[in-house]
Amino acid sequence: MIRPIKYIESIEEIVEIHLKTIEISGGGTDGIINLQPLQTCIHHIQNDEYYPTFIDKLTHLVFVANKSHSFLDGNKRIAIALGMKFLLNNGYLFVVQKFAEKMEAVSYQLAAGRITKDLLREIICSIVYEDDYPEELKLKILKAFNADL
Q: What domains are defined for the chain?
């Protein structure tokens, strides 16, 4: 039996998660720039024609949260926190810690423009469903992380 996906319910929930993330992770500015991209995102990921799989939905959520600069500070952190929340909502408790640990460096590189959305999807899929990155993905990540060197 396929369980229905449990989505983040509101932009207010995202703002609350952002405030808590800033507080717990060592501070920063808690101001809002523009919540429209995140508001649109939480509705769009519910459209199975555009985002047919759980990984597609999770990837888009993390990508938009990271790249849209909805907040004055903490956009990379909120991307990780929202990804963790989405995983928890949908019973992926076993992978949340690994997601948080691996996504820290990924989120930074995504914000810097070194990781594409397609590569982000591969990384997230591997984090959720595999014990470690396959060698081919490790090489892609290494190349992306060292793109400017």
A: 11-25+33-145 (1.20.120)
